[in-house]
């Protein structure tokens, strides 16, 4: 009699000969049910051997001593071997070998079988050839749950919006055919729904889980939890988490990450503390530690981060590279680069993520040059960077305007094959946009078919920063057309574009969009709205938004102070500044530009001096060119031109042409020709290329009777190729912007416009008004023609 252990060995040997070496896998399970060995005379099998009698026994009835590999495998054996090979090639992502197996399947005529077709769908899906996998799937006549799972899982693991939407469509088709999903189906659906940041179909799948009594499968429950957390429905995720009968470390890390990504640090710490009490000793607990460390992203949490660091040392978890990387990232985000560098230097087994964490840490803490140098070290060390490393160093180049180095990184990125990666392309677009290379930024944007909100926002912000506000608004409309939901930075940039164009009606529509998308009046939306209404002259609406803005920061106060200042309500601007100080908000350099400008418009010279001195004396702010310009304007408007000249000459900063230009204009207005000539000659010596400088100086010399000097200035203007910039104005009427340029006759209603101007001019003359021609805008030889 053969004992049980020997019988198990015989069974394993027979399975190996029939099905091939290694794991049989999902697709050979159906054949296992028919496997049996007939008893031969004198060979008794114990009942608990687990081998059932079956007609297939004829193939397996071989004397034990005679078990040898056959030279010509039977059709069943060959079919099973091909299935095993497909499974193996799928796991190894070996597309070349998988295609060879596909060819053998076609040659044997078994490609139409459901099991083989499922194996082929799984192969091509895992190798990233989703169109081919989908084509084979569509050709399957009798699809089973494995067929659907293979394709759904392939699209789900591929990621991206398009693939995730396809998963939703496949799941709906599956249910329409009354095919009941299993745990693998639901996990794929939940993962795709997480990529979409939605929970619509996920809730339906949740109801199906309850209906099928599948709740309790830890794989399904954890996927469902991840879906709710990534959709921002953390409270629903917590309900799922609380009801789960079993939890593993992945479940705990998913729950902690759900709170961490929403910035809810306290809740993340509570879940982590609960984990420490229940499952701290688990061998793979580093995932949970990594998740909780990712939530500590502010300087106030650095002490808590150190405590968690101590627990990792105590539990011996620093052997995990991922945890070391998380500690580097945590210290960097908590603005403690010293500790981050120590952690980085102590990591003997650094990978690309470790380098990326340190590069990004330098970049986010304003040490962009150090980030570029560290990347150079990484390159010299022969470490291949990841996409995220490239993103970090591109952001560093963007911050310090290293456009040439950025272009070299672009070339390296192409060499690494990251040109179609979303994060890398977004960083490229942002770098080119900030450098003013909008054409290159647009090329990067157009090369991607699937664009997320970050990519759209980068290009929109780039257009706004480079004063191409019309194109920014056109791009925003395109974003809305494609169904991309904007975020707060998007709306802030669009509102800034509306402010620059002074398009109040369009700004009100964008305000409506912010309400529709659920954005409150917190920074940056509140301050952007206040600025938009103020610049469009609608101060009451701007002030109303400002008063309703919660937790006002210095940007919010600056927006409203600037609005009052630039709309001639300087007293209210100064009152608001005093209120700002009373509420404990510390001003910045922009605040002082606004209040000194308000003093300038109101003629408060002494008060302006007081605020200028307050910058350095009380708040430790070093005056910049803008502050000096406001002071020169303040003195000039008050007629204190001599004091303004002395102030300019005593300035301790490099102000270029700015201050002398203000003084020149003031001298012309007050008729101080000698001082104006002095300021004008200073501008000539500094190489001014602005037409207004030449025109004003020539006019001053003409007024002094110094024709030779006037002719010299006109000659210099022509020799330097300086020409007057063409004036331009526009008006928004009935949702259409009408642009008028000096000398342009291309407007479709130019004749009607000229008629109206002529009619109003006659009416003004009849009522006693006179036309004033500003000689500063008339070049030599120009004549005023009245028609």
Describe the structure.
With 787 residues, the chain is mainly alpha-helical. Among the domains are: 220 residues, Alpha Horseshoe (Serine Threonine Protein Phosphatase 5, Tetratricopeptide repeat), CATH 1.25.40.10; 44 residues, no CATH class. It is built from 42 helices and two strands. β1 and β2 form a beta hairpin. The radius of gyration is 37 Å and the shape is elongated. The C terminus is likely disordered.
Number of strands: 2
How are strands sequenced across the largest beta sheet?
A: 1-2
Structural class: mainly alpha
Low-confidence stretches: 10-72, 772-787
Task: Give the CATH level 1 class of the domain at 509-728.
Answer: Mainly Alpha
Please name the CATH topology of the domain at 509-728. Serine Threonine Protein Phosphatase 5, Tetratricopeptide repeat
Name the beta content range.
Answer: under 5%
What do we call the CATH homologous superfamily of the domain at 509-728? Answer: Tetratricopeptide repeat domain
- Helix proportion: 55-70%
CATH architecture descriptor text of the domain at 509-728: Alpha Horseshoe
Distance between the termini: 124 Å
Q: How much is the average pLDDT?
A: 83
Shape: elongated
Task: Please give the largest β-sheet.
Answer: 2 strands, antiparallel
SS summary, helix count: 42
Computed over alpha carbons, the radius of gyration is 37 Å
InterPro entries: E_motif, PPR_At4g14850-like_plant, PPR_rpt, TPR-like_helical_dom_sf
PPR repeats: 144-181, 248-282, 351-385, 452-486, 553-587
Keywords: Repeat
Protein name: DYW domain-containing protein
